[in-house]
Amino acid sequence: MAGRHFLFVPGPTHVPERIQRAMQRAMIDHRSSAFPELPLSILRDLAALFRTRSGRAFVFAATGTGMWEAALTNTLSPGDRVLALRYGQFCHNFAEAARRLGFRVEQIEIPWGEGADPARIEAALRADRAHEIQGVLVVHNETSTGVRSDIAAVRRAIDAAGHPALLYVDGVSSIGSLEFRMDDWGVDLAITGSQKGLMLPPGLGILGVSAKALARVETARSPRSYFDLRDQLKHNATGYFPYTPPLSLLFGLREALDMLLEEGLDAVAARHHRLGEGVRRAVRAWGLETCSRGPEWHSDTVTAVMTPPGVSGASVIDIAFKRYDLSLGGGLGDVAGKLFRIGHLGDVNELMLLGALAGVEMAMADAGIDVQLGSGVAAAASWYRESVPDVRAESDEPSAAKGERQRGAVART
Ligand SMILES: *Cc1c(COP(=O)(O)O)cnc(C)c1O
C-alpha cells in the first residue's frame, strides 16, 4: 500500500524519526572507559521520568512482562502473600505472573470498565491484622479497557490501614505519557517498557525501585538470576551492566528521554489529555460508549470503544487493517470481540489522530455500524481548535523560531 501505515494500537507506538536516526549507529564497546556516560545519564533521567529522588531506575533487555517478574522476585520470598486487583487483562496477567512465581495471590474482582477501588484495598489490608500481605499489585492504566486508576488514592488507602505492604504499580501504558509521581504517590515498584509512551521499539524493560523496596532486595529469598537487582546495582554504580546491554535501544532511549524532558513532563501529560479528550468526543458523536464507565476512569492514552450488539469489534479491526492500512487494538479476555481500542500515546499529534479517527469511521460504517461519516472527526477537530495550547496560539513568529523558544523555556525536571 502507498503512504504511511497508521499504527494506532496502544503499543508498539509510532517511533519518531528522531529516535530512528539515533538508533542507526554502529555498535560500541560496552566495556570501554567512554561507555559509562550513556548509562549514567539514562539512569539519572529515568529517575526524573519516574519522579523519584530517593529511588533508583533499572534497565533490562526485556519487556514490561519481564519487569513484573523482576519486581516480584527481587522483593518477595517464596509463599509470600500479595493482594491483586483485577479489572482488565493486564491486571489478570500481573496476578497470574505472581501465582506462577510461587506467591499466594488474594484477588479483588472489580467490574471491567472501572479501576482500582481504594476502599476495598483498605478493607482487605485492615483484615490482615498479622500483616502477612507483602504487596499490593495494581495497574495504573489498564490498557485492555482504557481505564486509569488513582494511584495516590491507593497509597492513601494502604496508609490509612496502617499496613506496611509494598505498592507495585504497572505503569507500562502510562509512564512517559500520563502524570506519574513515584515519590509523591509512594510507589515502591514502578514497571514499564520501551514501546509505549517511550516511543521506542519493544525490547526494554524499565523498573523504578523505591528506597524501601531496595532494602527488601537484600532480604528477599526468591530465586533470581538474570533479573537480580544486586548485580545491576553493583555494575550500574560505575555506569556498566552485568552483561551486554541492548545498545541500539539505549541510543534510542537517550533520545526519547531528551524529547520528553524538552517538551516537559507536565506538557506531555497535558498533550495526552487534550488528544484523549478529542477521541472521547468523537466516540460520543458516533453515539457509542467507551468501556471506561466514567470520567474518573477515562484514560488519556487508550480509548476502548464498545461496538453495538451484533457487530464484533474484531470485524472493525480487520476491515481497518485490510482496507485502510490502520491498526487498532482488539478486545482481550472478558471483553474479547466486544470492543476495539484506539491508542493515542507517544509521538502523536492532532492531525495524525484525526486521520486515524477518519479511518475508524470508515471501517465502522463498512462493518455495518450506523455511524455518520465525519461526525467524530468534526467533534474532535472542534475540540482541538478550541483547546489549542496558548504557547502556540500567542504569536505569529515563524514556527522554527517558536520551537526554539519553547524548547529553551521548558525547564528540565
Ligand atoms: C503492554 C502492557 C504490558 C505488557 O507489556 P509487554 O511489553 O507486552 O511485556 C503490561 N501491562 C500493561 C498495562 C500494558 O499496557
Please provide a written account of the structure.
This protein has 413 residues and is an alpha/beta fold. The chain has 15 helices and 13 strands. The protein has helices at residues 17-23, 37-50, 64-73, 89-100, 118-127, 151-160, 211-219, 229-236, 247-263, 265-285, 313-324, 350-366, 375-386, 390-393, 399-409, and strands spanning 6-7, 56-61, 81-86, 104-109, 133-139, 141-142, 147-148, 166-170, 189-193, 204-209, 302-306, 326-327, 339-343. The strands form 4 sheets. The protein has a 7-stranded mixed β-sheet, sandwiched between helices. Helix 9 (247-263) crosses helix 10 and helix 11 packs across helix 12 (350-366). The chain is globular, with a radius of gyration of 22 Å. It binds pyridoxal-5'-phosphate (PLP). Pyridoxal-5'-phosphate binds next to helix 3.
Please specify the SSE layout and strand pairing.
Elements: E1 6-7, H1 17-23, H2 37-50, E2 56-61, H3 64-73, E3 81-86, H4 89-100, E4 104-109, H5 118-127, E5 133-139, E6 141-142, E7 147-148, H6 151-160, E8 166-170, E9 189-193, E10 204-209, H7 211-219, H8 229-236, H9 247-263, H10 265-285, E11 302-306, H11 313-324, E12 326-327, E13 339-343, H12 350-366, H13 375-386, H14 390-393, H15 399-409
Parallel strand pairs: 1-12, 3-4, 3-5, 5-8, 8-9
Antiparallel strand pairs: 2-10, 6-7, 9-10, 11-13
Helix pairs in contact: 1-9, 2-9, 5-6, 9-10, 10-13, 11-12, 12-13
This protein binds pyridoxal-5'-phosphate.
Pyridoxal-5'-phosphate is lined by residues 11, 63-65, 90, 139, 143, 170, 172-173, 193, 202.
